[in-house]
Amino acid sequence: MRRPWVGGGSLEGHLGIFGCPRIYSSTFDHPWLGSEQIHFFADANVIKWWSDRVLSLAMISGFFMVIYLGPIMLILVMTIQIKCFQEIIDIGYRVYHSYELPWFRTLSWYFLICVNYFFYGETLAEYFGALVQREDSLQFLVRYHRFISFTLYLAGFCMFVLSLVKKHYRLQFYMFAWTHVTLLIVVTQSHLVIQNLFEGMIWFIVPISIVICNDIMAYLFGFFFGRTPLIKLSPKKTWEGFIGGFFGTLVCGFVLAYLLAQFQYFVCPVEYNSETNRFTADCEPSDIFVMQQYTFPFAVQNILTWKTVNLYPYQIHSVVLSTFASLIGPFGGFFASGFKRAFQIKDFADTIPGHGGIMDRFDCQYLMATFTHVYIASFIRGPNPSKVLQQLLVLQPEQQLSIFNAMRDRLRDRGILPPAAM
Amino acid sequence: MTELRHRGTTENDLYQQSEDKGSENEGKAEGVSESETKPDTGLPEVPVPADDTPEVLNKALSGLSSRWKNWWVRGILTLAMISFFFIIIYLGPMVLMLIVLCVQIKCFQEIIHIGYSVYHSYHLPWFRTLSWYFLLCVNYFFYGETVTDYFFNLVQREEPLRILSKYHRLISFALYLTGFCMFVLSLVKKHYRLQFYMFGWTHVTLLIVVTQSHLIIHNLFEGMIWFIVPISCVICNDIMAYMFGFFFGRTPLIKLSPKKTWEGFIGGFFSTVVFGILVRHGYSFFVCPVEFNSDHNSFEVDCVPSDLFQLQDYALPATLESLTGWPTVRLYPFQIHSISLSAFASLMGPFGGFFASGFKRAFKIKDFANTIPGHGGIMDRFDCQYLMATFVNVYIASFIRGPNPAKVVQQLLGPHGQPQVTLLGTQRGGQRLAPESPGGVGEEVWCSYEQEHI
């Protein structure tokens, strides 16, 4: 009789009575049942399947709770970023057996702090402008921010060069490169997520929910209808799951966008109110969050007998986001699967029982965060007027005057300003 | 030593457990890790470059012993490179940009080539194509950002350029994503690890080579002097440190580079600082920001030199006054900046060189390539320049340059009408009263802008 929970794990999934494709190993740790109790049950697959689902629900509820708590999400994003970084660096250490290399852990964490300092400084200077102007020390830090960040990074670089030990050159260079690629992936994307958050919490919630939804939908469709394998890299994925997930995500995204677009709390850009020292999301919703009427083309009109439909323009944007999440998001998952196979690991870590590490949950999110950011920059948001204004007010008076005249003439030419507007 | 051998064995076990056990590549990679444990044995994985000194030089120097021959070859090539440097400066900004691009491509090629040789990954499907494709994508992204900033008028006139510039980030991201998906689809069962290594290698190389070369181009646009002086300082430091080390060198500096000495280091530091002070440029060709004149479709360097390049009187502190007998000294403020640039080049530049030396020792290669006889590859010449370029860019942004008025004007003269009127109003208001919190004014602008925008 096959006892999948005994012995070393294999990379190929073992299917139990529910076709549950989970992998077992002797180190499987159940949160509340000891290993003896597991052996006792006839098919541990059932227990595992339910505990997976319960944990998924717990994570989703945790997600919604954090949303309710508001922009405290900054801290959450930071925590997740640190955990992902730690997981990937840990893998690097194990692969290269470089625990005993001098300085290496210190240097990796130091570089993480440097890069985060740089990015947070750039973000803070933009969004906390009023607070920064008040405090002198902050002003100094902001003005020379790039220089200070560069100096900090250089110090780390010099420490690396000085720490090169004769027999371990290659390993040390590998770990250096590993650290930098990890920083490139993890830290830049998490800052894009934070920038999306500042655009409006809806730009944070909807992409993440869409990716989660695509994961779940693809899994369910694959579970019930799955037959044709999708890619050799991930034998558990199927075409039926992929296509079903695509349509399911479209619908979910559409509905979610409709639900969230009604609330100012989600829709408004997050601002830092320097008087009350809190974040607020309070404004007049922009046009994409105002219900509009769209006329159907004739062909669709004949089928549906509706002439027009009331939609938020944001729902159309959410269709684009859902399409991206369903079509390209899985490539992030394949990349992570390839990475795990390349380094012969089953999961990134064991942080979440049944799901692996934090990185396992977030591998598809990274591409999505970048796409959302690029999408907002290209289609939604124009240049930020307050930023431009800040730059203007720092210029010399003569320059300000010449810009003022140039703008006034330009607006007059375009007929926006009446000729005698002065 | 035994501990290292043991590490090598456990890595072997790791390989044997995998499904890739039989693959030839894993065996070779295993061989690579084996040689790590025995640092003295093992051929370099990269083929030793053959000596291809030009025939002319060989004939001319045939009479000398090999040590002096090497010295002369290096000397002649150094002079040739410096003359080439001056020629291209004379030719102007356009040629400089092209040269920077060529150097960047060559450096990238050299480093990728080393990666291929180390990992024996010539036969990996798609890999060369993908590396070059990523280079193209990242260059497209960076050049697009630069072009949009500096060629604003030209871009606004031509319709296809305008669309490319408006959706630039999206297009770059789409191009990069295509490469990413191609990579995922090209993963072959037995070569996963190698492919991920090469992917990581490519990205780190791009990070180093491409970003720095774009910082150099940004510096160039500030004014050619910000391009010439840093590069000259690094070259001068190289040469001076070599001379001082050659004549006076005794105490080794760092185990990593046994040829470097403390005497060379300190001598190089002082001579580079002196060189920095001696640099005096008043010609507008060098000190003016480079601009693109859309009427003539050419670059021009024409302006009133900024305050940095006007002679000013500095009062010497009392001690120096008594030493030299001069109460004040006339200097360009730029010379003071160039002292900090020289100091950085002498103190930190060598760390770039040590990094490259460590890299070469790690992968057991003598030079990056054999492009320049006597000197190695292009990367060998440029390894100290990279840190310098970043430093100069950060220095300019922090200490020299305020916001660029041209750039701010571009943002203002964008397509939306309503926010410009509001900004106009606030600007007028702002000019009448001294604004204490631009952020506060910005908030009301933001909301009215939001109403306008669709």
UniProtKB/TrEMBL annotation, chain A:
Entry's transmembrane regions: 54-80, 101-120, 147-165, 172-194, 200-226, 238-261, 314-336
Primary site of residence: membrane
Cross-referenced InterPro entries: PC_trans (IPR000374), PC_Trfase_euk (IPR016720)
Any GO BP: CDP-diacylglycerol biosynthetic process
Topology relative to the membrane: Multi-pass membrane protein
Pathway assigned in UniProt: Phospholipid metabolism; CDP-diacylglycerol biosynthesis; CDP-diacylglycerol from sn-glycerol 3-phosphate: step 3/3; Lipid metabolism
GO cellular component: endoplasmic reticulum membrane
Substrates-to-products reaction catalysed: 1-hexadecanoyl-2-(5Z,8Z,11Z,14Z-eicosatetraenoyl)-sn-glycero-3-phosphate + CTP + H(+) = 1-hexadecanoyl-2-(5Z,8Z,11Z,14Z-eicosatetraenoyl)-sn-glycero-3-cytidine-5'-diphosphate + diphosphate; 1-octadecanoyl-2-(9Z,12Z-octadecadienoyl)-sn-glycero-3-phosphate + CTP + H(+) = 1-octadecanoyl-2-(9Z,12Z-octadecadienoyl)-sn-glycero-3-cytidine-5'-diphosphate + diphosphate; 1-octadecanoyl-2-(9Z-octadecenoyl)-sn-glycero-3-phosphate + CTP + H(+) = 1-octadecanoyl-2-(9Z-octadecenoyl)-sn-glycero-3-cytidine-5'-diphosphate + diphosphate; 1-octadecanoyl-2-(5Z,8Z,11Z,14Z-eicosatetraenoyl)-sn-glycero-3-phosphate + CTP + H(+) = 1-octadecanoyl-2-(5Z,8Z,11Z,14Z-eicosatetraenoyl)-sn-glycero-3-cytidine-5'-diphosphate + diphosphate
EC number(s) given by UniProt: 2.7.7.41
Source organism superkingdom: Eukaryota
Pfam families attached to this UniProt entry: CTP_transf_1
UniProt keywords, alphabetically: Lipid biosynthesis, Lipid metabolism, Membrane, Nucleotidyltransferase, Phospholipid biosynthesis, Phospholipid metabolism, Transferase, Transmembrane, Transmembrane helix
GO molecular function (one): phosphatidate cytidylyltransferase activity
Cellular compartments annotated: Membrane
Family listed: Belongs to the CDS family.
Task of the protein: Catalyzes the conversion of phosphatidic acid (PA) to CDP-diacylglycerol (CDP-DAG), an essential intermediate in the synthesis of phosphatidylglycerol, cardiolipin and phosphatidylinositol.
Name of this chain's protein: Phosphatidate cytidylyltransferase
Organism name: Oncorhynchus kisutch (Coho salmon)
Lineage: Eukaryota, Metazoa, Chordata, Craniata, Vertebrata
Automatic annotation (TrEMBL), chain B:
GO annotation, cellular component aspect: endoplasmic reticulum membrane
Pfam families, sorted: CTP_transf_1
Pathway stated in the Swiss-Prot or TrEMBL entry: Lipid metabolism; Phospholipid metabolism; CDP-diacylglycerol biosynthesis; CDP-diacylglycerol from sn-glycerol 3-phosphate: step 3/3
Superkingdom of origin organism: Eukaryota
Catalytic activity: a 1,2-diacyl-sn-glycero-3-phosphate + CTP + H(+) = a CDP-1,2-diacyl-sn-glycerol + diphosphate; 1,2-di-(5Z,8Z,11Z,14Z)-eicosatetraenoyl-sn-glycero-3-phosphate + CTP + H(+) = 1,2-di-(5Z,8Z,11Z,14Z-eicosatetraenoyl)-sn-glycero-3-cytidine-5'-diphosphate + diphosphate; 1,2-di-(9Z,12Z-octadecadienoyl)-sn-glycero-3-phosphate + CTP + H(+) = 1,2-di-(9Z,12Z-octadecadienoyl)-sn-glycero-3-cytidine-5'-diphosphate + diphosphate; 1-octadecanoyl-2-(5Z,8Z,11Z,14Z-eicosatetraenoyl)-sn-glycero-3-phosphate + CTP + H(+) = 1-octadecanoyl-2-(5Z,8Z,11Z,14Z-eicosatetraenoyl)-sn-glycero-3-cytidine-5'-diphosphate + diphosphate
Molecular-function GO term, any one: phosphatidate cytidylyltransferase activity
Basic and acidic residues bias: start-end ranges: 1-10, 18-39
Region ranges (Disordered): 1-52
A GO BP annotation: CDP-diacylglycerol biosynthetic process
Record membrane topology: Multi-pass membrane protein
EC numbers, comma separated: 2.7.7.41
Role: Catalyzes the conversion of phosphatidic acid (PA) to CDP-diacylglycerol (CDP-DAG), an essential intermediate in the synthesis of phosphatidylglycerol, cardiolipin and phosphatidylinositol.
The protein, known as: Phosphatidate cytidylyltransferase
